Amino acid sequence: MAELIDIYDANLVHQGEMEREQAHKEAQWHRTFHCWVVDGASKSLLFQRRAAVSKDSPNLLDVSAAGHLGAGEVPSAGVREAEEELGVFFNFNDLHHLGERVEVWDSTGYYNREYQSVYMTRRDEPLTTYNPQLSEVNGLVSVPIAEGIQLFSNDAGEITVEAYLADNSKEFITQKLTIDSTNFIPRVQRYYLAVFVMAERLLEEKFPLVIS
User: Disulfide-capable partner of 20 in 3, 96, 99, 185 (CB 3.0 to 4.6 Å)?
Assistant: First the structure.
């Protein structure tokens, strides 16, 4: 069955419901949920690597967990995306709301008009405690906050990070991975830099956390 999502005008006024794929074809505004996971033990930010079979941005690094909100859903329902994609439980009340973010980008026959509800949480556990959903995620990458800030401030070309990647037998194994900014889903705004800065503030308990 096709997935129904709510659609909006540019002022976030609800306009009705539409199938998800059709909404992208018609450049309709809709809502998504972003959850960033910060590891205080390693002072790092968690990224997922999208599955090779993903229709959009295969094998690129993306938000720790993210997904579309279904028709009638509020942002708190989005926590299921974190649980489904990462295989661990998250309490919505433990998430810090960073704000609502607008993202627009177009490709041939596919148009994105998103209002993103952005959240951040802390989980001080190693990559091996996650159980990624192979149909959507083929790996997890832990990027040290300090190195991430350098990377997206254009002060570093490549960095080597801890990764938890699926091998040919679909088993996840830990390994080192060398990455640069081209390994991430492209964003028009400096979204990743802003998130790394907020992750640093979270660990230093410098509140509030905010993003736009």
Answer: 3
